[in-house]
Every structure is written in C-alpha cells, then in structure tokens.
Amino acid sequence: MANKITAIRGMNDIYATDAEAFDFLISNAEAVMQQYGYHSIRLPIVEKTELFARSIGEVTDIVEKEMYTFADRNGDSLTLRPEGTAGCVRAVIENGLTHNQVQKLYYTGPMFRYERPQKGRYRQFHQFGVEVFGLADAQIDAELIVLSARLWEQIGLDNLELQINSLGSIEARAAYRDILVNYLSQYQDRLDEDSLRRLHTNPLRILDSKNPEMADIIAKAPKLIEHLDEASQAHFAEVKAHLDDCGIEYVVNPNLVRGLDYYNRTVFEWVTTELGAQGTVCAGGRYDGLIEQIGGKAAPAVGFAMGIERLAALLLDKNLVPAQRQADLFVVLFGEQVTRPGMVLAESLRDAFPHANVQMNIGGGSVKSQFKKADKSGAALAIVLGDQEVAQRVAAVKPLRDDSPQETVAWDDLVEFIGTKLN
Length: 423
Ligand code: ATP
Ligand code: MG
Known about the structure:
Rossmann fold, 8-stranded mixed β-sheet, binds adenosine-5'-triphosphate, 15 helices, binds magnesium ion, BirA Bifunctional Protein, domain 2, 2 domains
C-alpha cells in the first residue's frame, strides 16, 4: 500500500456531528442577518500580502508570525486571509460600495493563522463575520451587539458574558500610549519577553497579556478609558444606554484592547468560561480609520467575527444541536425488475412532496435488511416494490411507527394515499 497522505497540522476535516453543529450555527446566523436586513458578500480567500500588513498592523501577532504568505508564480506576495475584515474593506472600496451608501454585510468561511494548534485554536478555522460601513452612530455598534445576543438566544447559548470597552479616538489613544509607556517603563525589569518587545512597538497589547506574572502590573496601569476624548466618551455612554434599554448585560473591561491595530472607540467580546483558555467566541468593534488607510474615501465602519469552531464546540458540549432530519418515506426495492420503476416512483414522490425526506434503498439486500434500514431512517412509511408489485403496477405501503396494517395501493393512487398518511 502506498503511504497515507495526511492533512496539514491544525487543518481539520469537519464531519459528522461537528459538521451538523457548523451548519446549525451558520443557518441560524444567516436567519438573524436576514431578520436585520443584512446582505451576503463572498470574498476571495487569498489577497495581496500588503493588504493585511497595512490593515491589521505590522507589529501584531498575526502579521509578525501567523500569516501563511507565499509567492505565486509571478513572484507576487500573496497571503491566505487570517481574518475577513481587511478583504471586505478592500472589496467595498474596489466596488464603490461605500460612496454615500450604507452597507450591512455578512460572510462566512475559512481563515488561516500559523498558531500552535490546541483546543479552540487551529491553523484553518472558520469565522462568521459582519461588517457595517457608513454609519458613525453608537446605535449601530449597539445593533451589532444586540443581534449577536439574539443569535445566542436563538441557538440556546445562555451563558456568554459580554465585555465592552472604548479605545477612544486615534489621537486619544496616541496620547494614552505615551502615558502607558511611561508607567510600564518603571517596571522594565519585571516585564516578560513579549511585553518588553511590545513596550515600544505596540504597548497597548501588553494589557492583553495572559501571563499571570504580568497581572499585577497591568491591574495598576493607567486606564485608557479614563483618557478618552469627550466625543468618544459620549459615544460609549450611548452604546451602553442602548444595551441597557434592550436588556443586554455587559461588563466594562478596561483592558480589552483587541489584537488588531485598526480598532477605535467601541470594542467588544463575547466570552465563555466553559472552553478553557480559548474563551472568546465572538469579537469586534469600530474601525473608522481603516477604509481611508487602505485607499478608500474615509467612512465609518464597525463589525465583528464569530469563531465557528468554538461556538460549535459549546453547542455540542451542551447538546444544543438538533438531531439531523429523519426520513419521511423509505422505498424498499427487491426483485429483478424493480430498480428502474423504483427510481421513477421515488422521483414522483419527491415531485409530489417537495418538503418530505424520501430515501430509497440502493444496492439490493434482503427484505429484512432493507426494513432494518427503513426503520433506522426514521421514516413513517415504507413503500415496497417487488417484481410482483411492478407487474401489477401497485406498491405496498407499510406503516413503520404503529401497528396499522400494510395496504396495497395502485401507482396512480399512491400520491393521494400517502398524502393522507403524512402530516
Ligand atoms: P484569540 O485571542 O483567541 O487569539 P483573536 O483576538 O486573535 O482571538 P480575532 O482575530 O478577534 O481573534 O477573531 C475572532 C474570533 O475568531 C475569535 O474570538 C475566536 O473565536 C476565533 N478565532 C481566532 N483565532 C482562531 C483560531 N486560531 N482557531 C479557532 N478560532 C479562532
Ligand atoms: Mg489570536
């Protein structure tokens, strides 16, 4: 036997109940998006490397060490998208979708980051992302949070904590950055390696450190939220007021800074304590400067992305994924001359009952084994064709879920008869 070819580490095949959980989550998310009048957008998985370098920020984990970057046959540097926002912004600029227009968009698909694979962290993972362009009001920040809360309710997740913060304006953040560097510089000898490296490149990220030895320094650090500009303060107050009005509970987490450079004002995360270290299942915020930064005419923007693997894991842990749909009708075929009329019969049932799940036995087998399959399929009725039935142009209809008797029905009357049996 030839050597087995394996998948790439951190890139998983998703099947069986995992795939069911993905589908359940995505179809519910799409339904919520429809409910709020958002539109689908489909974007390339590969973009020019420069797009991510310019949007996510040169000194972020993603750009420094997590991107799958390669030269194509022309020698152009391309990257498998590590997240969806940059490509979405590129697309709306390129297609002129933000000229005096509001866009409310959603997308889903794989993202790629070269991280250490572990529970809830993979190299190919999937996001469901939502982006809104052209609205500066706090009301839209709140709408995004409220609609995500509606999704959790819809799928039965009732234990997620909402953390929010405001990063203020770009200017306020720059001023705060100096204050923070000043404060942290006193502790140079106690900062860990990551933090030392970030001290002069991306000091806000130090606040996001998960190292317990840094916790004390971080807890006592000056808070960005106390250095917000007035307009950002008012904006944040308005977001909170909308959340209060809509009955959405939240915790203000002053150390929530997010990993990407492009955020300003509102940032938020939905967090669970039930998945171990990888607890953030949905994260987002406002990024008013990004469109201009990648070559468009300035327009406000806000969005979020859900981590589908993490949410699917929660749904499965809590048994919230509904069972796969069962069959309604199962066509049993035994004999020499049954496959061709059997196929036509099954198709006529699918024509007549477009919402029914109609399964047909393929590959022969004893009547007994076919009835076993029919029973397992969950079908209410078995429609049985043998050579004798075919010769007489009838089918036997056998109820599988109660003791009512089997009946023989002419092909011409079959649809009507079955219609009375299916509810
Ligand atoms: P983390 O702090 O967990 O690394 P992040 O801040 O890098 O997350 P975002 O870029 O905000 O993540 O992506 C949004 C969501 O996508 C995350 O909250 C998470 O649910 C999911 N996610 C991010 N990276 C991965 C990954 N490598 N594997 C699985 N899911 C991921
Ligand atoms: Mg990360």
